[in-house]
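Lecture notes, unit on protein representations.

Consider one protein chain, 205 amino acids long.
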Amino acid sequence: MKLRWSPTSPFVRKVVVLMKEKGIENIIEKEKSNPLSKDDRAATPNPLGQIPCLITDEGASIYDSPVIMEYLDVECDGPDMLPRNGAARWTVLTRQALADGMIASMVVCFVESLKKPERQSGGIVAHNKAIVFNGIAALEKDVADFDGDIDVGTISVAVALAFADQTFPDDDWRGDCPALAAWFDDFNQRPSMTDTVLMDAREFK
């Protein structure tokens, strides 16, 4: 298998964290792709030009990150990262969806930051920033139910919170969310997280 990836993408990071937690990183070749490069986007098997994109041994292209993570969980060895059925499955998937929505809003804020100051929209940034912090507040209420689990939901949450620290370095969400902060600070010490710290996309060649 081959993964089109970038060390700058939080959506890619989710997949790589799962690969490390399942112990399957060595069976998947990683092929770098710069999401800010028009040529790299055109070369990605995903017709949307987005990463991550997984190419299976049979040559099929699988995207986006939630689908890739479920595919790897079902098709590869290692601990299960997504319940197969029941209420627990929908809880984990909903948690992942919340985190992914937060990440998507932060990507919008990052894209705005790439524009010349006179072309940036303060309204767009404020709207998407509010989405992120509403999500963080919801996770503070939910974190007691994480139960030390490592699954696609908690992986997505951890990656989203790490990206929030990177995207909004001057905003302290921890003061209002002490339980979530304690959980994240512990999860963030896992080797799968410390080995996958994101690079600033503006520095990626």
